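User: Second chain of the day. Same drill as before.
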Amino acid sequence: MTNSILSKIINLIQFIKESLLFVPELALAWWDLTKRIFLSLYRYWMGKLFFDKIFFIFLFSQLIFSVLPWFSYEIRFFENTESISLGPKLNSVFILLALLNFFFLGFWKSSWTRVWFFTCQIGSIVFVIWGYLDPKRYFYDFVKPEEVGLGLPFYLFLGSVIGAFLFGYLTFKKEDEDLSRT
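Assistant: Same format as last time:
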């Protein structure tokens, strides 16, 4: 019995020793993989047109600002005031559209992605403006609209949607011009 416990301890020590010897090789492999991914993304980025780079930045910022809370309001508990930030009720829709636009148009373009992109952008603009005009229906329904303040991410999201729409149009126009020349 003591022999089996002793052999298990020896096996455990041997396993730990071999595992620790493997860590530097594993770290080098991860370093090499990470370097290859970033170099590949860098080459991809450098191969893009100027308008396409700006378009990519707007798509990424649209994704970031769709996740952040757009509104804030204050709650008063006796003498303590607490500020609460919240996103719109349709937040998951905005996030999903921004995520799909970022991946479809940032890394893969075809004729149907253009239709998808412009439909999503126009829909996002309409819902954001409509929600601005009628916030109790589309953004929040449990607080009074006069108590809620619009945060900077709301305006940045709207700006990134409009900027992505504009630079998407310019990118597609430039791509079509380049294709018609060849």
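The two ends are 81 Å apart (CA to CA).

User: Great, on to the next one.
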